[in-house]
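**User:** Here is a favour to ask of a fellow structure person. Please take any protein you like and set down a full record of it. No explanation is needed for now; the record alone will do.

**Assistant:**
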Amino acid sequence: QVQLVESGGGSVQAGGSLRLSCRASGYPYSFYCMGWFRQAPGKEREGVARIYTGSGTTYYADSVKGRFTVSQDNAKNTVYLQMNNLNPEDSAMYYCAATRGGPCNLMLSSWNYWGRGTQVTVAS
């Protein structure tokens, strides 16, 4: 059974940093693409960043470009999201996602597997 388990969330002051981790298990092959999404209370889930696991090519939403960095450690089946210069608008539940193939974009329908999320709260 495929599992994606996020960790690293917490509470920080504005301007601070956090590093989220997502460990994948239960899939006999490498995922084609992995991504990070977030959902704030009362808002729709939105894409934050994604990475092609083969090439390491990354893509970011405009709202986080220059502040967030997605990376991977294939040996550990783990994807990371380094978040710097956080602001209160970044507060949300952050979810890891993975796809076996097909489009690798930030549309929710493109993803096959989801984690349960880790909470990030940024105080002003």
In short: The two ends are 40 Å apart (CA to CA). The first strand starts at residue 3 and ends at 7. The chain has no helices and eleven strands.
